[in-house]
Amino acid sequence: MDKAMGRMVLVGGTALYVAMGVLALMTYMWNVEFFSFVTLGIALQIAVALPVVAALLGRMKIPTVSYVKWLLALTVALSVSGALGVPSGSSRTFPAVDSLKAKAEAIEADDLGGREKLELAIELAELNSDDEDGQQVIKDKIAKVDDSISKEDRKEAKREIAVLRAKARLAAVGGEARQMAIFSAEKRSGVMLLAAFIMFAGAWMLSRHDD
């Protein structure tokens, strides 16, 4: 009876752990990034349970109690660090939107002289308010930066920036629903931790029967 109960508990815990891991992986890939180090990390968290699945199916022999004990320790460590399942704070990140905005800012900084003008603006702000000659020199430099860019280049750069920012706004559509989905997935990480405890309980019950 103890062996059957232990096996049933271990099977239930393993199935719950793998199911929560797969759900976390699909949610992250769909709502955040399809492929990244985070998706790889979640996939590895699922993979560590596969030897237990193989052992339950009779395809592999492992020291079940010891293995599940280390799996539980790993799960606890990941949970404490906020990296179990969908990492904490994922609901506040928008990689696709941030990437598009960064490209637009890079064009503005390089092709429209934004970086150079910003540096000059800082110099202007740092000047003594009584130094009118120095202020005029810097203002002239800023004007020269604008004059050095042809109308065609300016028009093309502004067009690219407009396209990138429009794409960023489009990518952010449905952001509220996305945030809710990721936030819910973050909270479900606790179920993975519970599943690891259930797996350990089942393995421990099996070991008692064997003893």
Give a short summary of the structure.
The protein is 80% helix and 0% strand.
Detail the topology: elements first, then pairings.
Elements: H1 2-31, H2 37-47, H3 50-56, H4 64-81, H5 95-110, H6 114-126, H7 132-147, H8 151-171, H9 175-210
Helix pairs in contact: 1-2, 1-3, 1-9, 4-9, 5-8, 6-7
Task: Explain this structure.
The structure is a single chain. By secondary structure, this protein is an all-alpha fold. It is built from nine helices and no strands. The chain has helices at residues 2-31, 37-47, 50-56, 64-81, 95-110, 114-126, 132-147, 151-171, 175-210. The longest helix has 36 residues, at 175-210. The two termini are 14 Å apart. The model has no long low-confidence stretch (mean pLDDT 78).
Supply the key terms:
80% helix, mainly alpha, 211 residues
Mean pLDDT: 78
Low-confidence stretches: none
- Strand tally is 0
Structural class: mainly alpha
The number of helical segments is: 9
What is the chain-wise order of helices and strands?
HHHHHHHHH
End-to-end C-alpha gap = 14 Å
Rg over alpha carbons: 28 Å
Approximately what portion of the residues adopt beta-strand conformation?
Answer: under 5%
The profile of the biggest β sheet is: none
> Helix amount, in percent?
over 70%
Outline: elongated
